[in-house]
């Protein structure tokens, strides 16, 4: 099949490399506002260059991957759907929830699949955890712990436009908690601090946060995030039930150092980047998209799914700013 890529920056180039290695993909067509980036990608991956998103959609593509800046996501999703082309879009759907809801309304009833990029749903550990929960191996759940710790903050310009740590980083934890447990979040309480980079504080954001989520069956989820984890990129989940407990991410590249005498775990070189930690998941995610394009499966992460994680992020952001518990229903009402 022929796949278009809109936006060929860091993640777009990574997706181009992944797609070019999939048996189902015969050719790529790329476009980027920076013509040099598009030409460099074309040379590297044997892709064709188009001078605009419209040209990509008119180039006979079977599906399109949106890896452009967040502000462009709504327009590009809608353009692809209007053209009848299945679309994969990196999260978020839009910069604001109001815009995301408008995108959802605009594509409702259209027979064109949209897949949003939440790659943890394709990581082998998280897939196994979901299977264990849905299969009843853990019994009733009582506690979930989800962690995302970045090795260093992104650039100041990124932070200023990110919408805050809950919308940019923690939202991955919120999505995977919903997906693994099969439950919805009813209420949150969030705290945060900033003891690191001044530009994060100046942007009105926190660099380290904690959130307590109450799920709709009473399960408690604890989410921990930070922009500062000098040992590496740390993504983990613990799921505790009345019959058993399991963990995702406890492997030799875990960026954590044990001080227990005689303990040699973890013994590997720590993960230091999200692309390192989730290389296989990204490949599985885009493989799934080719199956969506081929019509052999439905979207594994819909706009609705992405918006649900977004509402949790909105509730946590409000909770942090107002120092109080916030229900998801409250932020939905606006």
TrEMBL record:
Q: Fetch the SUPFAM superfamilies from UniProt.
A: Glyceraldehyde-3-phosphate dehydrogenase-like, C-terminal domain (SSF55347), NAD(P)-binding Rossmann-fold domains (SSF51735)
- Organism, per UniProt? Streptomyces lienomycini
Q: Identify the keywords attached in UniProt to this record, alphabetized.
A: Oxidoreductase
For this chain, the family text in UniProt reads: Belongs to the Gfo/Idh/MocA family.
Query: Which Pfam families does UniProt cross-reference here?
Result: GFO_IDH_MocA, GFO_IDH_MocA_C3
Q: Which residues form the GFO/IDH/MocA-like oxidoreductase domain?
A: 126-244
The Gfo/Idh/MocA-like oxidoreductase N-terminal domain sits at: 1-118
- Membrane spanning stretches: none
Record-given protein name: Gfo/Idh/MocA family oxidoreductase
């Amino acid at each position: 099949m022929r796949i278009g890529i809109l936006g060929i920056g860091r993640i777009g180039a990574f997706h181009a490399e992944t797609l070019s290695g999939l048996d189902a993909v015969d050719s790529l067509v790329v476009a980027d506002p920076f013509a040099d980036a598009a030409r460099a990608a074309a040379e590297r991956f044997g892709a064709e260059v188009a001078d605009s998103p419209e040209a990509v959609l008119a180039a006979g593509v079977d599906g399109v991957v949106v890896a452009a800046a967040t502000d462009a996501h709504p327009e590009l999703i809608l353009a692809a759907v209007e053209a009848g082309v299945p679309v994969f879009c990196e999260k978020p759907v839009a910069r604001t929830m109001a815009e995301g809801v408008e995108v959802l309304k605009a594509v409702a009833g259209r027979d064109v699949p949209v897949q949003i990029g939440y790659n943890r749903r394709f990581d082998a550990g998280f897939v196994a955890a979901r299977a264990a929960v849905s299969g009843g191996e853990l019994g009733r759940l009582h506690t979930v712990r989800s962690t995302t710790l970045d090795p260093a903050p992104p650039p100041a310009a990124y932070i200023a436009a990110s919408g805050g740590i809950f919308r940019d980083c923690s939202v991955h934890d919120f999505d995977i908690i919903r997906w693994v447990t099969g439950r919805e979040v009813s209420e949150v309480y969030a705290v945060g601090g900033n003891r690191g980079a001044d530009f994060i504080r100046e942007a009105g954001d926190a660099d380290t946060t904690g959130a307590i989520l109450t799920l709709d069956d009473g399960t408690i989820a604890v989410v921990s995030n930070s922009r500062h984890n000098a040992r590496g990129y740390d993504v983990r989940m613990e799921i505790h039930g009345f019959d058993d407990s399991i963990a995702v991410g406890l492997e030799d590249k875990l960026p954590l150092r044990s001080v227990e005498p005689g303990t040699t775990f973890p013994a590997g070189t720590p993960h230091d980047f999200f692309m390192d930690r989730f290389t296989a998941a990204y490949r599985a995610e885009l493989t799934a998209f080719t199956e969506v394009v081929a019509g052999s499966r439905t979207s594994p992460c819909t706009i609705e799914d992405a918006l649900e994680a977004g509402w949790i992020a909105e509730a946590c952001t409000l909770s942090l700013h107002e120092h109080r518990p916030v229900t998801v229903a409250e932020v939905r009402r606006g």
